[in-house]
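Sync notes, pocket subgroup
Present: LS, DG
LS reminded everyone that the earlier model was apo-only. Rerun requested with pyridoxal-5'-phosphate included. Inputs:
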Amino acid sequence: MPTPNAEYFIQADVKNVWHHLTLHQGKAPMIAVEAEGLRIRDINGKEYLDATSGGVWCVNVGYGRTEIAEAACAQMKKMAYYAASGGNLPAIEFSEKLLDHMPGLSRVYISNSGSEANEKAYKMVRLLAYNGAKKEKKKILYRDRDYHGTTIGALSSCGQPERRECFGPFVDGFAEVPHACCYRCAFGQSYPGCKLECVKAIEDVLCKEGPDTVGAIIFEPITAGGGVIPPVAEYYREAAAVCKKYEVLLIMDEVVCGMGRTGPMFGYQHYGIVPDMVTMAKGVASAYMPISCTVTTEKVFAGLQVSGDRLAYFRDISTFGGCAAGPAAALENMRIIEREKLLANVAAMGAYLMEGLKESLSHPNVGDVRGKGLLLGMEFVVDKRSRQPLPEEKVIALCGEMAARGVLIGRTNRCFPEHNNVINFAPAYTVTRADIDAILTTLREALGSVLG
Ligand SMILES: Cc1ncc(COP(=O)(O)O)c(C=O)c1O
């Protein structure tokens, strides 16, 4: 059934609402009205199976979680807000629980968005240099194809040229290292015979910039929007060794991967390393409330304050970092993940979805299938031999066809001049085999209809 007054809302949307990352095209997008589990119903009464967890990988425990809504509501009624220069009970309980899942890390700084969590990390790197012996150790390296947010500082560390285009000038003090996508190796090599030239290249950039000027490097553990790219098993261990050699901090941007999206609680935990800083946002409260965190080791925390210098401490505040409903929702979100053993389901259903997606490798336009847990991608090519990327319009058409058939999937959306050719699948952690079968059947039908 369409929503009463649907036509009025659609017209009012077109007239008044400015949609994110969308052309001004004078027509309303899908207007979501109700949702439960993995199902969304739109204003026209059409039902979709949401294989994107809310479009951008965040409603991780699925829709309709009254426990989270009630926890947030109860907290708002009891004590809605006090600035995070003070404390609140859910922030204390949530931080303790979060750190139980992050051995080696010990301090939680709460803010509102992924971009903001990364900006905090960048400010910490600069303050550590100010406080330390090597005053110039302020530059931050980032990787081609990674994304760290929308603010100008975060965009200055963005490895996706089309996301940056038109928004310069950018902030000084950032430099790019090559990506780690084996399917499109920047060095023309193939794994495992490659000796990880992509890591060697990090060291080269670092030395070119000057080790005494580089304070940190930031990675998405598995590049998400930039094409779902999990580096090979040894990549981060070797990168961490380079960081150690040059006293460079390792920041993991877990905004997408954090809170179990790829199987373990954090993406870096696939790789046997402990970062110096970890940022997270989307799945922290499964998007029921906006909350993000910048988590550091005790060493980083200690280095951020120097007694006797009245400015040498982390003079930073996030107004809404003091909203107590955020950590209340995040705490309940973590309890659900634990109680329902959802990480086991992420691993099992991720493997099942991966197996099904791999069957499509027989299609002439499917070049690669990759990812971990429930963050999986499929890369399209014009033909397998040349690996020439399929034009973005065709990928948009494929996603449109899937939506028309009732399944929402994601795609690399205007990030690169020519590599917007990856679709992605990131359903909620409660996804079942039957849901995955439905996603795969629709994919096969849509592939046949759009690409032949
Ligand atoms: C890896 C990563 N980092 C940071 C961000 C920025 O998060 P936000 O949109 O909450 O500012 C995103 C958003 O998509 C992201 O994917």
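DG: The chain has a mean pLDDT of 97.
LS: Residues 56, 113-115, 118, 147-150, 220, 224-225, 253, 255-256, 281 surround pyridoxal-5'-phosphate (CB under 6 Å).
Action: DG to write up.
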